[in-house]
Amino acid sequence: MPHAPGTSGTLIGVLVYLVFAQFHWSLYLLSVIALSFLAVYVAQEAEKLFDKKDASQIVIDEIVGFQFTMFLVAPTVVHIAIGFILFRLFDIIKPFPIRFCERRLPGGYGVVGDDIIAGIYGNIVLLLLITFVI
Q: How far apart (Å, rounded) are the C-alpha atoms in residues 33 and 120?
């Protein structure tokens, strides 16, 4: 993704979410966990290939992170749009411990781990918004 790779990766994540959203919550969670382990491996190998830590060409981490944001969320246009914005916001701002994980975890764990935490933060805020505001 040559331009805005994080945003582009998240857009792919929306498409993956639309498939996963059809699953029962337990299968959704198992699928996201399996995808997370695959992403760690792929990101670690990609770092070797590109000879750079968290190279911008790696977007599987955004795909995974967005799945965490959307866990237990109904697939409506409003929910997806807000989830997208929240995930990107947390992924860019990187509040504690997101930046810590990105810098301190080795290889693919650091590449994917920070996006998983950003996704969890996004999920918490999104579920609160859905419960109390939307």
A: 13
Tokens of 61: 């981490």
- HSE, CB side, 13 Å, CA atoms: give it for residue 125: 16
Give CA–CA dist 50/38, Å, rounded: 18
Say what percent of the chain tops pLDDT 70: 99
Label each residue of 109-132 as H, E or C: HHHHHHHHHHHHHHHHHHHHHHHH
Closest C-alpha among 57, 58, 86, 71 to residue 16: 71
What pLDDT digit, counting tens, does each position of 66-95 carry?
Answer: 999 999 999 999 999 999 999 999 999 999
pLDDT, tens digit (0-9, with 9 covering 90-100), for 47-63: 999 888 877 889 999 99
Count the Cβ atoms, other than its own, within 10 Å of residue 64.
28
Q: Where are the domains of the chain?
A: 5-132
Separation between Cα atoms, residue 87 and residue 104, nearest integer Å: 21
